Amino acid sequence: MRSTSGAVLVAAGAFLIVGAVATPLTLAPALVKLPLDQSSVTISTAQNATVLDFSTLSERSGVGLTAHRAVRGDVDAGNADRTVFNVGVRVIDDAGKEITLSTDRVALDRRTAEAVACCAEDINGTPFKHEGLTYTFPFGTEKKTYQYFDNSARKSYPAKFVGTEELQGLTVYKFEMTAEPIQISEIKVPGNLVGSTEPTVTAGRYYANTRTLWVEPDSGVIVKGQEKQLQTLRDATGADKIKIIDATLTFTEETQKQQAKAAKDARGQINLLTGVLPIALGALGILLLLLGLFLVVRASRRGPAATAVHADDRPTTDQPSEATAEPVEEPTVPAGGRHASDRSEP
């Protein structure tokens, strides 16, 4: 019985050890992915911004801005390998007046977070192929340079690792990306707005941005984001003549806390699958394996168990043992009595 129990424990222990090895290698990669049903809203604010009032075609300074970005996953368009995000960004001033509005649709590899060509991706309704990272970093972010996509410039730029910081109770990696001034569109405006004597001219709209991202490396979640954005109208010589927007937009404190919680939750799941669970399975497997081997070895040393002798199997003879030297006594006649074979005389 002990050998059978030992063999069972050995098999169970071996199974758990294999599970401990397989969990981080197969189960974790299958489960640690970008979600299909992503749903989040981040808010950034800027103080003392400068914006162009298109109704009066004049600059306004000292303006407070708020940018709302909503990210929603298109579950039906996603699968085991990709997730699809629909994104809307709306910037308003402190009076609630809309400054800019943009939309984006992008498909991402669920493991690497890299953009993939798929699923009718577009920018502001116009089909466009994204490249590099966007909206998130990969699981296990490294201290290196990544290509990060800029929607306004419609191209990716190097996001360089510049250091490590503590933020919202987390150790985060800091990345910086610089988009040099690039023309993103043309606008017809009164000539005097850009120093021309013509009644109407076509002026180039130029965009530049310095983007800083603080990333929790295990989860790839962007805990804090900041953009120093400048958009201008240029004259025919290429000189900036008027600002459309000049602002530094930064995640609010509440958004940073929200993002930090998301990073902690994701990191906890990753640690469970890659650390806690394999260690627990391995420790229990080794314990069962050793206990099972102990029982098997012990049973083999004891040998087969002796056969029990039942009462019915014992000798039934009433003869005394020949080995005894004691004489056999005859039955004693009670005092005053006589042997059963005696007969009385008449």
From TrEMBL:
Pfam family, one: PorA
Domain of life: Bacteria
Annotated region (Disordered), positions in chain: 305-346
Protein keywords: Membrane, Transmembrane, Transmembrane helix
InterPro entries: PorA
Transmembrane segments annotated in the record for this chain: 272-297
Name this polypeptide is given: DUF3068 domain-containing protein
Organism of origin: Micromonospora vulcania
UniProt lineage: Bacteria, Bacillati, Actinomycetota, Actinomycetes, Micromonosporales
